[in-house]
């Protein structure tokens, strides 16, 4: 009698060996066991198919694990919760973009939220973009499949105890500390020299990290960031040291909730009884204590020339409900301050008031989505004394067409940041801009080189 040893962990092999050793048995036993022979063969085939199918399903349902070594602790800290589902319409146009969001210690970001102004003031796009990316469909938890790496550092939430304005003197050291952390704990910064890493600089002169232009120009862009991508509110059409870095011009932050509340209480299609509106800082004497001319004297000239004109509603003092005044206005003045840009640009568009841009050389955000030339008026700084004449001519000619263009919901949507990415909103526009910079992505450039090699 042949001995049948069972090879370890090989049930299929054992069944096959038993079936091969049936010879020499009586004829009636062979007929009797014929049924069992085919039954065992069928059972073996079924089990093999079952385990093979289970293996395929299991592998398809699990995300691909990183193929290189990364600190398990840091990887898992970014996987604490799956991204929430958001509206996916339109995301196909982002070319399957993938963004990895670093999970930095709270001292770099969320600790600052203890002051509620941090997430609401005009520089708060740094907070809004971070929040939106955390639940976005473009977010990846696998850094090896990422096209870009978002570094969430809030630098505009340190409010001065003297004047209450954001003080960003700590910005450079805070960013340098964050870069040192991610470059020492992860391999991704060093492999691309930071070219696929994204920062936000949402204050006056953006990536120069200073509120006064002469100091900002002297300091320039920090050396550690010069190879990266900066999302910044500062933008001009001419050469400037503060945009000598790969950048995307973004709008200042205006709370979409505040806009909606204003629209509920003061519908944008209601009566507009204010012809020209401005509320904000207007120096009676433009040269301040630092010896600098605020707004290049533009706001002072507006006050001196038109304060007595009943068609101009000019206010120098703060008012919490000033958005209701915008909703009542036909034209809203948007003169430069220390920097060319102003939150009034967004508030005016959102509330249906024609923005009058007075800032020579300004580069406005998201030109492919917002047709600024069709929804706004541009007045040169030297022509500010002719404002009344210029706006009278617009009112008599093409005001109706401008207002019709202005009331397009897609235009307003493109300038507002939401807590979750919505198709066409400001964060979506940022992602769209990044999708056009895939040549800076380490992963994207490797894929491109491979495709060129294959063809």
From TrEMBL:
Domain Exostosin GT47 stretches: 95-393
Single GO cellular component term: Golgi membrane
Sorted UniProt keywords: Glycosyltransferase, Golgi apparatus, Signal-anchor, Transferase, Transmembrane
Cellular localization per UniProt: Golgi apparatus membrane
Gene Ontology biological process terms in this record: glucuronoxylan biosynthetic process
Main localization category: Golgi
GO MF entries: glycosyltransferase activity
Family matches, as Pfam families: Exostosin_GT47 (PF03016)
Membrane topology (UniProt): Single-pass type II membrane protein
Any coiled-coil regions, as ranges: none
Similarity comment: Belongs to the glycosyltransferase 47 family.
Alphabetized PANTHER family for the sequence: EXOSTOSIN HEPARAN SULFATE GLYCOSYLTRANSFERASE -RELATED, GLUCURONOXYLAN GLUCURONOSYLTRANSFERASE IRX7-RELATED
The protein's name in its UniProt record: Glucuronyl/N-acetylglucosaminyl transferase EXT1
Source organism per UniProt: Vigna unguiculata
């Amino acid at each position: 009698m042949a001995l049948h040893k069972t090879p370890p962990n090989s049930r299929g092999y054992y069944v096959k060996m038993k079936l091969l050793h049936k010879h020499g048995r009586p004829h009636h036993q062979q007929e009797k066991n014929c049924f069992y022979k085919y039954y065992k063969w069928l059972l073996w085939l079924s089990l093999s198919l079952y385990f093979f199918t289970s293996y395929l399903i299991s592998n398809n349902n699990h995300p691909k694990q990183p193929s290189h070594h990364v600190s398990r602790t840091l990887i898992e800290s970014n996987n604490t919760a799956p991204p929430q589902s958001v509206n996916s319409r339109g995301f196909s146009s982002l070319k399957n973009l993938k963004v990895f969001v670093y999970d930095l210690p709270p001292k770099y970001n969320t600790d600052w939220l203890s002051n509620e102004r941090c997430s609401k003031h005009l520089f708060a796009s740094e907070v809004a973009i971070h929040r939106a990316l955390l639940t976005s469909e473009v977010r990846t938890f696998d850094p090896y499949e990422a096209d870009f790496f978002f570094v969430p550092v809030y630098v505009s939430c340190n409010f001065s105890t003297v004047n209450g304005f954001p003080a960003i003197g700590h910005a450079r050291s805070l960013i340098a500390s964050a870069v040192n952390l991610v470059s020492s704990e992860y391999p991704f910064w060093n492999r691309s020299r930071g070219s696929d890493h994204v920062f936000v600089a949402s204050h006056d002169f953006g990536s120069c990290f200073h509120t006064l232009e002469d100091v900002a120009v002297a300091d320039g862009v920090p050396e550690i960031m010069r190879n990266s991508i900066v999302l910044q509110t500062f933008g001009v059409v001419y050469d400037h040291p503060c945009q000598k870095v790969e950048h995307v011009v973004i709008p200042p932050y205006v709370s979409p909730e505040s806009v909606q509340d204003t629209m509920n209480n003061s519908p944008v299609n209601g009566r507009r009884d204010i012809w020209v509106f401005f509320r904000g800082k207007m120096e009676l004497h433009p040269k301040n204590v630092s010896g600098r001319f605020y707004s290049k004297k533009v706001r002072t000239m507006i006050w001196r020339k038109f304060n007595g004109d009943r068609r101009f509603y000019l206010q120098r003092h703060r008012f919490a409900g000033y958005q209701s005044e915008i909703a009542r206005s036909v034209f809203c003045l948007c003169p430069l301050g220390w920097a060319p840009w102003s939150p009034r640009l967004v508030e005016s568009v959102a509330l249906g008031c024609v923005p009058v841009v007075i800032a020579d050389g300004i580069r406005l955000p998201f030109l492919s989505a917002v047709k600024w030339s069709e929804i706004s008026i541009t007045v040169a700084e030297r022509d500010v004394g002719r404002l009344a004449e210029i706006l009278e001519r617009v009112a008599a000619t093409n005001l109706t067409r401008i207002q019709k263009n202005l009331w397009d919901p897609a235009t307003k949507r493109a300038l507002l940041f939401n807590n979750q990415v919505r198709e066409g909103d400001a964060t979506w526009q940022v992602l769209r801009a990044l999708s056009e910079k895939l040549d800076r992505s380490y992963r994207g450039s490797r894929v491109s080189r491979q495709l060129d090699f294959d063809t």
